[in-house]
Design a protein that fits this description.
With 451 residues, this protein is of the alpha/beta class. The chain has two domains: 4-203 and 409-450, 3-Layer(aba) Sandwich (Rossmann fold); 217-387, no CATH class. Helix content is 30%, strand content 21%. The protein has 16 helices and 18 strands. The protein has helices spanning 14-23, 35-44, 60-64, 92-95, 100-107, 139-150, 198-201, 211-214, 233-248, 275-279, 335-347, 358-365, 389-396, 415-423, 428-438, 444-450; strands spanning 4-8, 29-31, 49-51, 69-74, 112-117, 127-128, 131-132, 154-161, 172-179, 192-193, 206-207, 255-259, 262-269, 285-293, 305-307, 321-328, 369-372, 375-386. The strands form four sheets. It has a seven-stranded mixed beta sheet with strand order 3-2-1-4-5-9-8, with helices on both faces. The two termini are 25 Å apart.
Length: 451
Amino acid sequence: MKELIVDNFAGGGGASTGIELATGRSVDIAINHDPAAIAMHKANHPTSKHYCENVWEVDPKEATKGQPVGLAWFSPDCKHFSKAKGGKPRDKKIRGLAWIVLKWAGTVKPRVIILENVEEFQTWGPLKKGKPIKSKKGETFNKWKNQLESLGYKIEHRELRACDYGAPTIRKRFFLIARSDGVKIKWPEPTHGDPNSLEVQAGLLKPWKTAADIIDWSIPCNSIFERKKPLAANTLKRIAKGLEKFVFNNPEPFIVSIGQTGFTVDRSRSIHDPLNTIVSKAEACLIAPTLIQYHTETTKNGVRGQMLNEPIMTLDSSPRYGLVSAYIDKKKNHKEEVKAFLTEYYSCSVGQKINEPLHTITSRDKLGLVMVHGKDYEITDIGLRMLEPHELFAAQGFPEEYIIDHDYTGKRYPKTQQVARCGNAVPPPFAKALVESNLPELCKDKLNEVS
């Protein structure tokens, strides 16, 4: 009989997509309590049997109808384990969703079980007034794991990074693999690595995909000085600190060339590329774009950003990622506004005020200069825009054709829902790599088609 593949907590379909990329077929059963998530899943995986229910209300025996289960994937809600939750109370019921694994293991005994969560899942323990008891950290996790082993499963777990498997994000996740068939558990070897590593330089690994790879350069980055609603003071401070960190103090800014009649074919280039190409487009050069995360409660320096030649930061379900760009020789001149912005907001972090002695202000004016191959360029405008949902899905490693803007009935999603589905998703390259390593027999049909 055909072995079934079940995706519990299926969400918008990240794990299901990765599984399909490995096996060449959709998961047979997809379960999620959120109608919006199931609607997106249906649009992309129409042949799956969908259950829009609480996972506890689905009877494994009834759902599988006597067919064997080759793989059961579980991605229970991670928010009440994650350190991003801060000091807010945890919910015992949500933290306990992983017990559903034992229900499936005890009733239909999937041959392979894979669980994905945040790394803090391993600290699962009892709560007191909504707060984890430090002395009992990991107690419930070990109890849960022991019960799974008592049902005849061999267990291994590790932490993996999405960028090591082809997704342009540094997202790190905890994975547990459990097998009941006696076959050895196999962890996938990384396919990508740090461009400076010996493995990449020797051609053994591909270089990490970067934030620049997923930026849609056709979308304009509008001036921060022309907004209908002015940016909040804290946002401006973060932009100023980001400019200091990623433009003024960075010896090798990332450069994009923009032409008068549109974008050039080769839109992105390293600072190491020939300068004449950059200069020929100097009327609108985008110098050292940076990604800034707006909510920086977990950072101490007030700015959480990065260069675009690195994998993108971990994505979540909130629209918090903005593209900040510094322009030179822009037609619409904001020189005086930029000068005041750099002086006023940069001074917020160092104690300088705009009405201090002229020589001090003049020294700060130099912060508006970017040196490229020994030549100074003056910043004349600062642009800012949020990353669009299709860019965020690309950063998670979803295929370009993945449907994110409407459900299976054609009803369109607002951007907030698209971003929420993306942030809660499992990066598909994770699932693809794990399934190919541990269930190659389910991938045979796809491999035969390719050959």
